[in-house]
Sequence to fold (353 residues):
Amino acid sequence: MEKGNDFAQRLVLWQKQFGRHGLPWHSRDPYRVWLSEIMLQQTQVSTVLNYYPRFVTAFPDVYALAAADEDEVLGLWQGLGYYSRARNLHKAAKQVVNEFGGEFPRDRLHLQMLCGVGRSTAAAIAAFCFNARESILDGNVKRVLCRVFALDGNLNAKSFEQLLWQTAESLLPQEGKDMPAYIQGLMDLGATICKRSKPVCTACPMGDICLARAQDRIALLPRKKTQVAVKDMPMYWLVMRDQSGSIFLSKRPANGIWGGLWCVPCADSLTALYELAALFDLPADDLNADGEFLHRLTHRQLHIFPYHAQMSVSLHRNLQGISGEWVSPQHLADYGIPKPLHNYLNHFQGLLF
Fold:
């Protein structure tokens, strides 16, 4: 316990002097903290800095977000990836308004009832906003704990994760007032000092008590996770434009790649693309290939093959019951569309939006 107290005291003092300050989401407002925590999941701070201000401007409070249309939320999220986060964010805002009277719960367990909020995210909100003595355990924190205390185990194993949680909870400051600086310190230490590669050990407040450093095991801890194989996935796009220049978009299913976003009709093979085009009375000879390009997702390498076609007025009016909308170029920005489609329409089709 003495080492735990020493760890907390060192971290709080270090964060106040050397940690990151002035980020736009540094706040005691649970709405802003929650929003930033969701955005920062598996996303770098530098990226979130480009999205967070626009999001807060569009939805300044939880009531505004709850009342928003899902397409508007997804549109602002475009490019951040992991779109289930945006859908859960919208659902959680409605929960806060409808189930909690517009006030965020003050404790971790109730915060975990919100869609998309896990234990670590809930703990961060409770600690930052309400001084709750709760620990977070994201990838950065796991790395810090594994190195400082020479904890060696399989990060994919539940038993080892439980050990990390127990360790994290044993290190908490005794005073609630220290929790915001402590939790921010954990984030800052892992992000700026105890980095995955090229850690700055000479600037670390734990340098003289770090067991991995003493044992010359910095490069070995934590053990690398077993990498999930990246699968190649072909995707054929049917890019249809009518005589006015409008493009046909349909909304993708909530589950799967780009869930809930608007996209051109997609197929998984050229044969399926021809069958899809036939529903619009488009013969294969009327489809023009633009050439393959790649787009990397976390566990997928998309091989995208766009085929475009110019639609006649009669075909525009006769869509065979296909669900979708014709969207003019000047209104494309109002729709949440996948980043690669946004880039394709800009650079290859000459649509600036």
Observations:
- The domain at 2-136+158-192 is CATH 1.10.340.30 (Endonuclease III; domain 1).
- The first helix runs from residue 2 to 18.
- The chain has 15 helices and eight strands.
